[in-house]
Design goal:
The complex is a heterodimer of chains A (130) and B (114). Chain A has 130 residues and is an alpha+beta fold. Chain A contains four helices and five strands. In chain A, helix 1 crosses helix 3. Chain B has one domain: 2-Layer Sandwich (Alpha-Beta Plaits), CATH 3.30.70.1350. Chain B is elongated. The chains are: A alpha+beta (130), B alpha+beta (114).
Amino acid sequence: MAEKSVKIIDEDGQIAISEEVVTSIARIAAEKVDGIARSGKTVSGLKSFFGGEDTASIIKSEFSDDGVHIELTIAVEYGYPVHEVAQGVQNNVQKDVEEMAGIDVIGVDVYVRKVIPIATEKKQDISSED
Amino acid sequence: MTKEEAREKGHVSISQEVVTAIAAIAASGVTGIFHREEGMKRYVETEVEGENVKVTVRATLIHGNSLYKVAKEIQTRVRTEVEQMTGLQVSGVNVDIQRLVTPEEQQLSKKEEE
């Protein structure tokens, strides 16, 4: 039980939500934003090897007494305004985590680490589809 | 042997495995939970003490639903079905939400099963 979790206890028993689950919600929320470089989807996970470049977002969630703090390191596709993509990520992550997990989001920090040319992204998409 | 009732006709006993199976099937019937019936058993633990059962469900949920609502539904269903089908008292149902999958991942795993 080393893993951290948020617990809701009432007469029915206890409901616990782990940090990993909040991180998953954040990842899916971030990937919905236009312009974010998607990683090798969680299913295949191999795309980054083919591209030789890891475009996967690095996401950390940390629980505290007041809620959860989320940190995302992302890559943005070339051609999209970086600050708007980052703000989109902040909004989406906060909304999804609060709606789905019911946990207050204290802050969402977004670090844009890379810009990815769109063309290679698309090629990789096709090659991973078949 | 977890439940034994001395009755005039003899003993009735319900094994813990049966209680666990009922809890697992009840939980897996909730919309928004990932594992289906048989697979769910591995993620359910029951502790029986006398007439009381405590159930722990380690759940993988499907992205898109309110986790709290799904967890509540699991608690309600498990309690109702275990109590109705065994006559034991459920003292609590703990739901540990450990993992999330996307609806696409769920589709993929369904195909693999077929």
